[in-house]
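Suppose a colleague, Dr. K., hands you the sequence of a protein chain of 447 amino acids and asks what its three-dimensional shape might be. Before reaching for any lab equipment, you can write down a predicted structure in token form. Begin with the sequence itself:
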Amino acid sequence: MRTVLVVSPCFPPVSTPEMQRVRMGLPYFSQFGWKPIVLAVEPRFIPGVVDPLLLESVPPEIEIDRVRAIPGALARRAGLGDLGMRSFPFLFGSGARLMEDRSIDLVYFSTTVFSVTPLGRLWKQRFRIPFVVDMQDPWVTDYWKTRQNVSRGAKARIADTIHGLLEPWTMPEADGLIAVSEDYIHTLQARYPRLNHVPSMVLPFGASEADFAIVRKTPQLNPFFSAGSGHFHGVYAGRGGADMEPALRIIFGALRQGLGAQPEIFSRVRLHFIGTSYAADQRKQNKTIEPVARELGVADQVVEHPARVPYFQALQLLLDAGFLIVPGSDDSQYTASKIYPYILSRKPLLAVFHERSSVCDILRRTRAGTVVSFNSQNGGGGSVDSLYRAWGDLLRSLPCPPPTDWQEFRPYSAEEMVRKQCALFDAVIARTHPSGTVDQVHRAGRN
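The predicted structure, expressed as tokens, is then:
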């Protein structure tokens, strides 16, 4: 069995979206010939939400190597608040020790803390161990340059500059590429032609039925609404942001239309947007949903709670909801990994996404919900009408589970995703070590 060092700085009990692929996949790696060792940062050095229940989903036999980091308060004085920069030397040292003492065949980066990814090139130069990068989001993007009405603060601009230096130093040396969007892969291949010749794969996040079994076994607190209050409670648990404004305008426009045409049912709608801010500091948790609702005249039926909530509490909110509503980004490359637990909750689902988002195809093929699409030119007028009609039909039929085609959904299971990941790992090993065993190559690199 081969060994993969999985670099995932944020790892349970820390509750962040980026660690979900690794966490859900850990029970299945050995099934496909790979033993994972996780390299992570100690939770005390990571600001944000902690969810101890997450540890119940991690197999006890999984080896987890946790490292220190420079404390955030101290590092911010020097302008180094980024977790990757704070933990970089500790991750490098621990990873190097593992490579000296153990037979590590591959390094796999699955994180949006992109500033740790250059470790792959450094370790490769020293130990001749190949590395694979999982692009859950773009590392460097031109998205903000095309949004003249969105201001970027000084810290964000400095971070953009740093990432603009680190990506071209790191990515040309990658030996494999996984991404949640085909556009991400094409963009990187265009920037770094060598990546056209390494194994690559489009792989969305997987879904875990086991997570819902955990939350049903251990019900979580829902302080936001009462399921038996006589209202139709619609829930969205996830980030907000200016890029979601077009989708929100469609949602709130449809709600306004419903209030005028069918007040007897739409007046009972209450929309809850929970965990919309990434900021750990409550003072910086700006609301991005309620201002749009106020502008469109539906603020009385929309409540935004910017503070992030633990993962399993978010699942509880999905289970308690009357229906689910998911706004997407105006970035056509955006793929909402959260769509899979939404589907697994078996609740009626309304989604509004850019027409090029993979979410549209997934929902239509699985029949797990209604998706209304938009593009950059249509202004959302027709989309508002479509959503209003679908929404009215949904409210009149509650409670009703969607007619999900679970056979179509099967490819999105965590087990199937890991099978594909491991197939790519095997391809990387076959390409990088065509002659001799991996152990022989490693020993040669150390001598």
